[in-house]
Amino acid sequence: YAGAPLEDRNGFRLGTLCLIDRKPRTFSSDDQKTLRDFADLVEREFQYQELGTYYAERTQALNILNDISLDSNGSVSQRIERALAIANQYLKLETAIVSNITGGVYTVLWHHERHPTSLENGITFPLEQTYCSLLAAQGSVLAINHMGRSRFSEHPCYQQFQLESYLAAPVWIDDELFGTVNFSSTIPRRPVFTETEKTFVNLLGRWIADIIQQQKHTEVLDKLVANAPGMLYQYRLWPDGHSTFPYASGGIQAIYQVTAEQFAKDASPVFERIHPDDLAVVADSIQASADRLAPWTQRYRIRWQDGSWHWVEGKARPERLPDGSVLWHGYIVDIDERHKIEEMKSQFISTVSHELRTPLTSIAGSLGLISSSSLGHLPEKSQQMVSIALRNTEQLKHLINDLLDIEKLVSGRITM
Asked: Which region, left, alpha or beta, applies to residue 257 given φ > 0 means left and ψ of -120 to 50 means alpha?
């Protein structure tokens, strides 16, 4: 007999490569080295086969995760439930759950069962009665192949549900334990959970955390946008001249009486609602902002719901994109009431200023005649009082002229 031990790539003993014969013989040191060389060849073949299986398993897991991450159809709930169904099939387990852990309460947010039972989304359990209490204490991937033979066989969850196998990963959001993604079955795991399967569940948990976090951020943004006055938007001008609204808040309905989806591919109908006298000014201001990448600010009139013309104001900041198009981020608000008030104020100032200047001119002229002694000599004290009145009259005239100049400046009627 001559034998050489065989080991796998991790050093675990697999067996031997042995030679057996009924005839006695001796083995030289060269014979022993040759046998060892043959044993090394056999070990390498085992290791290649083992690595091939390992990499095939890893590739399958990564392909499944890739398919899950590229699935963007439907709501967050639909995407997660489809992911749980795919993962359940890959792991060959019975139940998949995404849970939320708040305090000592475990809540089923989404689930998939290969054999439906009474489990429902939204159902809650005390955390200590679930296997997730073990994961929460550990804080990392937890795999149990046969619960009945493990040190957790007295756990309340096992006593109640008789779940023999369990594989779970934590779902971390903003460095806090949000919950878990876990898979379980009433049948012991044979063969045991592999490192690839553990990695798969861990990466799936990270993906779930990402889309839950995105959903939370979107909900916060939607609430802020819903309470913002007017419409928030992105306006994109392409190199070929066509334009789109890649994003517009719900306020676009009130401003332009359209939905955001209608102008996501073509923004030209928006310009049809602008007053003909303002259309060229708006178009020129957009082009000037694009050429200089300067902030865009414009007031103009649009046709309102009742058919009347309504004043709005828009402000936005542009940025140049790699393809040569320009993207503005800004807002448009209804300023019709404010515009009317400003016009009333301007008209009031203009009217009052003109009405004040006429009598004030007469008063100033009269005081000037009295002060010049054209109507007779005045006592010294009377002369002082008239001079004071005349100076203040001139100051009032200057203030009124300033008001009229400001009114002309605002309306664009002043020549510098």
From this structure: left
